[in-house]
Amino acid sequence: MVENEKPWPEPAPDWPSARKTWKLAWPFHIYLFTALNVLVVIRGTYDLVKRGKTHSRRKDHRFLMNLLLILFGFSRTMYLLWNPYESDPDVAKTVLVICIVTFGIGTACIVSAFSFVLLIVLESTRISLAPSKFQNRGFLLGLSIVNILYVIVSDLIVANFHEAKAMIIVCQVMFAAWGFLIAIGFITAAARLWRNLKASRQTSQYDPVLAAESKKVRRLVSLLYSSSFCGVLMFSTIVYSAFGATGVNNESGLVRSWPWIAVKTLMRTLEVLMCLLIYLVALKTRTSKPTKNNQISNDSTLERVNCSTQTF
């Protein structure tokens, strides 16, 4: 098939042959990840309903984090149920483009949620990794909006002009680069918390309350390292998808069935795991109402451990 006759320039399996090869693996993949993404939506909605007014009144970053995860889960659910991976050859081009745009918006939402939960951690622990004009809600929100707009514009352009397919690679690299920076932020915050925790061990030996709180901080540190590792894997998979056999530079337009579904399954698994880790990290870092000097008060666990380290 001539490239300009293709509905979308990214390569895909030979669908009739691939479905026969995969057998039950195909519907299992679709409905498993649909169900998991529905759970993401339910969890985010529950938190918004339960604490929505509190989050909104305090301008808690969890409000935007939950909203972004809900949008992510909803977009993935709609994408997988409507036209999964553009596998229906008879679908209208308008529907195809809507599905592709929906998928891209979902990716932008999970990357944004990943960055907002890091901001929660940094403000809860009073750790600074960047100048204040970059480490704030307004900057991250603006960056999220820019990324979503770029996804929409680039997908609409590429859908009508395949020669502009490099915009897809730019979009994937942009998400990966942003994600890698956030992953580095997680591992840096975890390292600083661990260093502080080690310095406070001598004091915690004689203070049972501080010892119990230090244990909670160790759990948070483990979650931060896990989030960083998951982020590196997920964004590395995006880079592989951009430049590997599944990228737009594959001139054949076709990919082998099993490697293709393996990459997609890995990517969907990492996305769901990322959502879980975001929720867990947010639970372990509770920010309270901003003080008069616009600083965020720490969770008692982090506050006492940090205060104890300042005496050394």
Automatic annotation (TrEMBL):
Domain of life: Eukaryota
Protein name: Proline-rich transmembrane protein 3/4 domain-containing protein
Pfam families assigned to the protein according to its UniProt record, in alphabetical order: PRRT3
Main location: membrane
PANTHER family cross-referenced by the UniProt entry: PROLINE-RICH TRANSMEMBRANE PROTEIN 4, PROLINE-RICH TRANSMEMBRANE PROTEIN 4-RELATED
InterPro entries registered for this protein in UniProt: PRRT3-4 (IPR059081), PRRT_domain-containing (IPR052836)
Subcellular location: Membrane
Transmembrane annotation, as ranges: 24-42, 63-82, 94-119, 139-161, 167-191, 223-245, 265-283
UniProt domain Proline-rich transmembrane protein 3/4: residue ranges: 5-288
Keyword Phosphoprotein: yes
Keyword vocabulary terms for this entry: Membrane, Phosphoprotein, Signal, Transmembrane, Transmembrane helix
UniProt membrane topology term: Multi-pass membrane protein
